[in-house]
Amino acid sequence: MSKRFVASTILFAIVVSLASFARAQQDNPQDGMRLPGAVYDFDKKGEKPKPAPKHDISGVWEPAAGYNDGVAATGAKAMPSDGKPEHELPYTAEGRKTFMANKPTFGVTQVPAALTNDPVPACNPQGFPRILLHNYRTSRIVQTPDNILFLYEFNQKFRVIWTDGRQLPKDPQNPTWGAPDPPESRWWGYAVGKWVDDYTFVAESTGFDDRTWLDNVGRPHSDLLRVTEQYRRTDLDHLEITVTIDDPKMYTKPWVALRLRERLQKNSFDIHEMECAPMETDAYNKDVADPAVDK
Asked: What distance in Å separates the CA atoms of residue 231 and residue 143, rounded to the nearest whole number?
């Protein structure tokens, strides 16, 4: 099972094929692969929504339309790299130059896997917000008095969003809180959040390491990147997520990268392991990526 998950990190076409096979085996006509034990909206047709709890987004959450609904192999889900004019991002000159220098394995600028300069196949941190825009699967949200923790299935990562009233660092390269000595940018940035009404939590993040990509097709970001996440609890069983990108070095205006609807699972739901293992990456390159270029 772990090899199947590692392959998904490297080449999402494999995942899509496996998902199609799983659906056929289970005779499931719905889009997205069913994760054993999970409940999806197509399981609850005609249900009457129950009221959402106030100031609460905790729990185990799964993409409501199916396990693969959070997979965005061809770029940010709301703005895929498919060549369509409506999905062309508002690049600055520097942003377009940087995008063209990246060599992804999907999208309009794709290259063979052996020629990619994508940092993720080498098991480098995918960072934020790529974990949301690349492979958003099952997650667990834990609320404490001082912060909200996000635990992600993909590569077994976690994030902390502080809710204790602190402010984002004015200079991400010289932060005023939570940084080691000497100060540094972070793969996952610095994040703070607050409730804007009884059912909507908004987080702001800055201070990202600019060696990461925004998504699977090489959309770039700079050290000025600011990410806004909105989590709206629409009823007891649903959470709607919106992610907005703002980076004045790379883009002339903010743009919405993700809109995703999630469904609450039982608290006892076991989140599967999905880890990037260098030894399996090496095996994949030897058996699949490198021979593909040689041909």
From this structure: 13
List of residues 6+ apart from 38 with CB closer than 8 A: 62, 67, 138, 265, 269
The C-alpha atoms of residue 81 and residue 189 are separated, in whole angstroms, by 25
DSSP 3-state of 252: coil
Q: What is the mean pLDDT of the chain?
A: 86
Lookup: tokens for 266: 């039982």
DSSP state for residue 157 in the 8-state scheme: -
pTM listed for this prediction: 0.85
* Nearest-5° Cα angle at 243, 239 to 244: 150
DSSP string, 187-243: SS-EEEEEEEETTEEEEEEE-B-TTS-SSTT-----TT-EEEEEEEEEETTEEEEEE
Look up residue 281 and give its amino acid: T
CA dihedral 118, 124, 126, 128 (to 10 degrees): -130
Structure tokens at 221: 């970001």
